[in-house]
């Protein structure tokens, strides 16, 4: 059956469903639409965006008739809603879906379907727009006066709408859009009027799903100009801590304390801040204690006066600090310093100097505000306007300058329309530039990245030349002195990082990943199905995490949900918490949001930790609460900063990382002691390597428990004053490293936050260690004396100032195969000012990367075609795909150079029984040829199942280490293709049999693990296990392949789940070829989790369509493990 035949059959199934299964109808139609788009956009250059943009792109590509395009978008909107599709609309929607399938696949609608759908579409010519407040549309064409657009968010009878963007009021200039627009771009047309059949919007927002942070926009409004490229330049700036930053952080905390604890003493506020920000104070290079204390006391004095002034008018008990907002209308997001929950007051605080206040000279707008601050507060007010329909008369807008006493310290802000429009224009230009960078060669921008480009306004030349120009030059000058290879590398990686960020914001293809815009684009039913939202939550408990914090730990009751609901939240995930009224649907765009992280998840309750606790617990209130995934730009920002750090690194380090010089080795070095005969040779090679070493650690080879431990011990034994940095990609892996260090008596401290750290290791957190040291000098000494520091890569990148005060002799990066190059380059290229004379300023003298590139790679949302590298300069250094890790590239470089001194492979594995290890050894680890240690369980000749068999199935289970149980096709119209009822029953029955055989030896955390490709299958298997009424089975881990990497169980059961050929693409994603052999990373992870037995179940007809799966089935048959009916 072809894909199109299968989709037509699915539409027939939808038409056959009874009307009472309305929710199933909606969901299946939406699923079909998503799949058509995914299939239709394969191997195309369609860039980004939501489902509407994908539909629009395919309709243009296949020249779908305008009337049918209108009908297809109507069907999309209907299926996207939880509201029942009206009977009159249902048949027409199925017709539109069938036409869409026909157009995309070039196949006629089959006869079995034509009799079930209308022969003609309905007349839509007279349907007029119902909402002129916001028209979401897509660009079809434009000239110097008008834009032709297709309407997406509401019914409209014509194939296009004409937008007049030339006849705008004096304070609005849309002419710049001529250079920004492109076919397929989405627009929001806001507050539209109609003049001579043309729509005239007051605001046009390009690509509104791309939310820009308001503070990032405002920070580009400098006195010397606000060119869109300044946004790019600001992202290259290194993250620095200075005295101004510390004072700003203190002022924000002081505002919180003064509002909620008016009686709090100034000394206590300062002491509390020092305790919370001890590490920041220690890392600040220009921190002066006496100066800070003086300024801090002045800030508190002014804040007290200003707060009293504010709350003489407004209610203090309604004051909320640091609430967050997302605004899809304006394409903006942000966090406000202070407002009231009734939205009557909006205040943004600034702690620094204001030239206009100090000199009492007005700016060009006739006010005393700094323009960037003015822009920031105006955009916050814009969010209130469009999210909550507030007006300038109903909300009081203020700027709080806490450096100054009243009346200067609290300035009123008029909602200046012209400046607001200029800020939206800037936002649009930045977004358009980002999209351009994602699809073009970044090197074309470099000639424009000069100070003259950024300086677009007249300003105080003396001040600019003395204080501003040097900083800009320090960022831009390195871009113009790059070698051809360095330039190619930097530019290709910049394009890759920017594209990844866009996809993380707006999506790529629905169903292939998650993105920030899912918050409003994904149907609620789909959010619930995918576990990406909790709804109907009620408050159980509000608590303070410390005596000095606000109410920041919120525990919520989880209501009884349907059996299929499986939350897609883990400890440490970023979240939004918000309330909504009974009878309403949860919507982040209409709510005050609390940002935080998930602290604990269980069936009955969840606990979230808020980033900004509220001193008044009554502010966290509502009928119901929802929790959704939060987003952050920190990953892409760190990557861009890291790339810039790389191009400013010393030449020796750049040459090493780009393969322009060989690593160095000192063969005279010897180990200080013997560690283990299976590891000593590799530990010696790693020690002799002077600047880098690559350690391949296949599953079960003891890379953490043994190899990493011995590497650390040898470094400390060689030099008792050595400093070692241990990094890993995930908190789970860092917990494992901490466990090894604790068990072996190696002292260490950990960088990170409490919410993502195992409770066992919280006492080792640097913040908690420093809390015991009352002085700044004591804190710095603690940092200097820490010989081993452990962290995730992201936590260290957020605290890169540590390299300014500490040099590391050795850095070991575990899970290196899961880290993209841009995320590691900044760390490996960092400089330490105190070591300039000794080691060329390198913060890290030597690094060791540990990983297994045959396991799961880094998560990348771009297609392989998009991340592929064509530049011959880059291919010459083994960089052929940006989605590959630095670890993998460096290994290929060493192999191509014929060197073996800088690569080691661990070959003794103590996990898999030889019968399980045989297949991955033969097909995945041909080079490595893993050997068993052997441990006791690897020497066993038979499985330890001695309970009398119930039947032949038990006998079969006892007799074979590797088993395949074929499953029959069991498609059901009302069941997702990501779930398989037949296999769920097979898995549950197999677990029952294993549990019976294991008896008292059964341990749910060690004995049995279940791996599936889709989360939907987890819920189905759980349901089948519940029917067995065996409570001990409730704690068995059932998870996806991605979540299982790094784990192991005695018995692994894998449900392939799939029944359609197209699903093989997902199941085999990440495969690559080595020595003529296909390496299936996902399958490799599945097999190598098992210690004693591996049981697989799947649809053989589907699996046989993949060569690797076919080899696996043949292998199992030859070993006798194929279970016949």
TrEMBL record:
Location of the DNA2/NAM7 helicase-like C-terminal domain: 884-1100
Single GO MF annotation: helicase activity
Occurrences of domain DNA2/NAM7 helicase helicase (ranges): 681-759, 780-861
Key word DNA damage present: no
Pfam families found in the cross-reference section: AAA_11, AAA_12
Name listed for the protein in its UniProt record: DNA helicase
Organism: Prevotella brunnea
Keyword set, alphabetical order: ATP-binding, Helicase, Hydrolase, Nucleotide-binding
């Amino acid at each position: 059956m072809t894909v199109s035949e299968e989709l037509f059959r699915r539409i027939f199934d939808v038409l056959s469903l009874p009307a009472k299964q309305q929710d199933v109808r909606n969901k299946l139609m939406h699923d079909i639409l998503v799949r058509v788009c995914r299939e239709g956009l394969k191997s195309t250059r369609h860039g980004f965006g939501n489902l509407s943009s994908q539909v629009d792109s395919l309709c243009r590509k296949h020249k779908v008739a305008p009337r049918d395009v209108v009908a297809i978008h109507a069907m999309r909107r209907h299926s996207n809603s939880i509201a029942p599709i009206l009977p009159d609309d249902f048949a027409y929607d199925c017709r539109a879906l069938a036409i869409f399938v026909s157009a995309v696949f070039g196949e006629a609608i089959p006869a079995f379907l034509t009799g079930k759908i209308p022969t003609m579409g309905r007349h839509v010519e007279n349907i007029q727009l119902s909402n002129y407040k916001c028209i979401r549309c897509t660009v079809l064409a434009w000239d110097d006066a008008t834009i032709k657009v297709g309407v997406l968010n509401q019914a409209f009878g014509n194939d296009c709408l004409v937008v007049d963007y030339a006849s705008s009021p004096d304070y609005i200039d849309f002419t710049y859009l001529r250079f920004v627009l492109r076919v397929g771009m989405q627009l929001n047309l806001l507050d539209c009027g109609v003049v001579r059949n043309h729509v005239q919007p007051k605001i046009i927002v390009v690509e509104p799903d791309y939310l820009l942070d308001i503070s990032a926009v405002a920070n580009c409004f400098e006195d010397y100009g606000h060119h869109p490229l300044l946004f790019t330049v600001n992202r290259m700036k290194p993250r620095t801590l200075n005295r101004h930053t510390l004072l700003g952080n203190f002022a924000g905390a002081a505002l919180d304390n003064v509002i909620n604890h008016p009686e709090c003493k100034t000394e206590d506020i300062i002491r509390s801040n020092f305790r919370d920000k001890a590490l920041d104070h220690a890392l600040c290079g220009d921190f002066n204690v006496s100066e800070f204390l003086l300024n801090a006391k002045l800030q508190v004095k002014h804040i007290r006066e200003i707060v009293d002034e504010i709350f003489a008018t407004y209610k203090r008990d309604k004051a909320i600090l640091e609430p967050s907002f997302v605004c899809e209308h304006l394409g903006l997001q942000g966090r406000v310093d202070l407002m009231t929950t009734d939205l009557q007051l909006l205040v943004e605080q600034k702690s620094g100097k204001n030239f206009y206040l100090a000199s009492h000279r007005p700016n060009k707008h006739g006010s005393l505000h700094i323009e960037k601050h003015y822009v920031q507060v105006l955009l916050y007010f814009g969010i209130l306007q469009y999210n909550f329909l507030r007006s300038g008369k109903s909300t009081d807008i203020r700027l709080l300058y806490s450096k100054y006493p009243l009346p200067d310290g609290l300035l009123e802000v008029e909602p200046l329309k012209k400046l607001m429009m200029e800020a939206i224009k800037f936002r649009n230009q930045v977004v358009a530039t980002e999209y351009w960078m994602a699809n073009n060669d970044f090197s074309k921008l470099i000639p424009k990245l000069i100070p003259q480009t950024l300086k677009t306004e007249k300003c105080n030349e003396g001040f600019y030349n003395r204080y501003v120009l040097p900083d800009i030059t320090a960022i831009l000058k390195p871009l113009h002195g790059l070698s051809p290879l360095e330039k190619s590398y930097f530019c290709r990686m910049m394009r890759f990082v920017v594209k990844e960020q866009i996809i993380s914001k707006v999506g790529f293809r629905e169903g292939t990943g998650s993105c920030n815009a899912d918050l409003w684009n994904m149907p609620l039913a789909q959010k619930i199905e995918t576990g990406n939202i909790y709804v109907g939550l009620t408050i159980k408990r509000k608590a303070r995490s410390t005596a000095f914090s606000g109410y920041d730990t919120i525990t919520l009751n989880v209501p009884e949900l349907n059996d299929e609901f499986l939350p897609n939240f883990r400890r440490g995930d970023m979240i939004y918490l918000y309330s909504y009224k009974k009878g309403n649907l949860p919507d982040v765009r209409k709510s005050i949001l609390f940002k935080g992280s998930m602290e604990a998840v269980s069936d009955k309750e969840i606990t979230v930790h808020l980033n900004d606790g509220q001193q008044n617990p009554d502010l966290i209130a509502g009928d119901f609460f929802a929790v959704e995934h939060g987003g952050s730009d920190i990953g892409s920002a760190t990557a861009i900063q890291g790339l810039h750090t790389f191009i400013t690194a010393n030449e020796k380090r750049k040459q090493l990382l780009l393969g322009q010089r060989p690593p160095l080795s000192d063969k005279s070095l010897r180990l200080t002691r013997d560690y283990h005969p299976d590891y000593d040779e590799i530990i010696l090679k790693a020690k002799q390597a002077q600047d880098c070493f690559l350690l391949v650690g296949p599953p079960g080879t003891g890379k953490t428990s043994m190899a990493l431990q011995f590497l650390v011990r040898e470094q400390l034994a060689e030099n008792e004053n050595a400093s070692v940095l241990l990094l890993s990609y995930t908190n789970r892996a860092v917990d494992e490293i901490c466990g090894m260090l604790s068990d072996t008596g190696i002292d260490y401290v950990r960088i990170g936050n409490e919410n993502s750290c195992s409770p066992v290791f919280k006492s080792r957190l640097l913040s908690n260690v420093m809390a015991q040291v009352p002085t700044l000098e004591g804190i710095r000494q603690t940092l200097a004396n820490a010989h081993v520091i452990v962290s995730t890569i992201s936590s260290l990148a957020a605290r890169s100032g540590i390299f300014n005060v500490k040099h590391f002799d050795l850095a070991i990066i575990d899970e290196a195969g899961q880290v993209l190059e841009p995320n590691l380059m900044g760390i490996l290229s960092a400089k330490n000012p105190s070591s300039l004379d000794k080691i060329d300023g390198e913060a890290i003298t030597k690094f060791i990367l540990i990983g297994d590139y045959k396991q799961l790679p880094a998560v990348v949302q771009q297609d392989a075609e998009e991340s592929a590298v064509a530049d011959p300069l880059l291919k010459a250094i083994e960089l052929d795909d940006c989605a590959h890790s630095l670890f993998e590239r460096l290994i290929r470089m060493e192999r191509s150079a014929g060197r073996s001194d800088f690569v080691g492979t661990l070959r003794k594995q103590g996990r898999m029984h030889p019968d399980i290890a045989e297949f991955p050894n033969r097909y995945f680890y041909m080079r490595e040829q893993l050997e068993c240690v052997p441990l006791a369980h690897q020497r066993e000749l038979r499985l330890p199942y001695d309970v009398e068999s119930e039947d032949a199935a038990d006998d079969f289970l006892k007799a074979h280490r590797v088993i395949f149980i074929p499953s029959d096709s069991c498609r059901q119209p009302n069941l997702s293709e990501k779930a398989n009822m037949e296999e769920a029953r097979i898995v549950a029955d197999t677990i029952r049999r294993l549990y019976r055989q294991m008896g008292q030896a059964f341990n749910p955390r060690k004995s049995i693990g279940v791996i599936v490709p889709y989360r939907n299958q987890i819920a189905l298997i759980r349901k089948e296990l519940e029917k067995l009424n065996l409570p001990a089975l409730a704690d068995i881990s059932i998870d996806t392949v991605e979540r299982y990497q790094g784990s192991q169980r005695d018995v692994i059961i894998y449900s392939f789940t799939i029944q359609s050929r197209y699903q093989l693409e997902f199941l085999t994603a990440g495969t690559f070829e080595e020595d003529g052999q296909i390496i299936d990373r996902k399958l490799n992870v599945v097999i190598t989790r098992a210690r004693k037995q591996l049981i697989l179940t799947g649809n053989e007809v589907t699996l046989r369509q993949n060569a690797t799966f076919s080899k696996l089935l043949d292998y199992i048959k030859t070993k006798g493990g194929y279970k016949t009916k």
